[in-house]
Amino acid sequence: MQHASGMLTIAILVGLAAGCLLGVQPSANGSLSKVLAHPYQAALISFSVGTALLLILCLFSGVFPPSFQSTPGQLPWWIWSGGAIGVVVVTTSLFFVPRVGSVPWFAAIMTGQTLAAILLDHYGWMGNPQATASPLRLLGVALLVAGVLVIAQAKRGEQAAKRSEQAVQRSVQTASSSEQNAEQTVGLGEPALPDSANPTSSPVVESTNSE
Q1: Relative orientation angle of helices 102-123 and 135-189, to the nearest 10 degrees
Q2: What's 121-185 look like in SS3?
Q3: How far apart are CA 22 and CA 44, in angstroms?
Q4: Rounded to 5 degrees, what are φ and ψ at 173?
Q5: Residues of the chain with pLDDT > 70: what percent?
Q6: What pLDDT is recorded for position 210?
Q7: CB 90, CB 40: distance < 8 Å
Q8: For residue 195, what pLDDT is reported?
Q9: Average pLDDT of 198-204?
Q10: pTM of the complete model
């Protein structure tokens, strides 16, 4: 029992660290996509880097090439879906994170992961050890869903405040531009003063011829 509790603690700590890295990943990929022609190219480079690192690890560990313990044709179809799921997660994050931010996106991602994990554990699907969805687990999922709703509402409030600020700035700029145009119009419409009325004009000196 003590060994199982210690393993759980280690798993939670490692999971937290991996979650932090997962939170950084879309920002890195998003910055990469900004210097490329399409987000798919950023996803391709991201997976290529990951594949290269895994290849190096396998070579140094002496476990390359992969060897199957069963015939690949006898394996269930969903066993090959991990890479495709990774493509979906990375590509969608490349699109949404720059637009909505990391917090709402990952709150939704973590909630979706927890919902899927609850179902997989409860029914023992996809090779997972069966564990009944207890009331405490369901409460945890409900709190995650509530957290997503709160974060989404906060994001909407931030967006509304930003739009209001931008509208005020546009109004100020429009008023300033209108004032400048009015001043220019008045300046162009002022009549020229005659010389007699202009104090800075030089006086006319009449010359007389003496006999």
Answers
A1: 160
A2: HHHCHHHCCCCCCCHHHHHHHHHHHHHHHHHHHHHHHHHHHHHHHHHHHHHHHHHHHHHHHHHHH
A3: 17
A4: -65, -40
A5: 85
A6: 45
A7: no
A8: 53
A9: 51
A10: 0.63
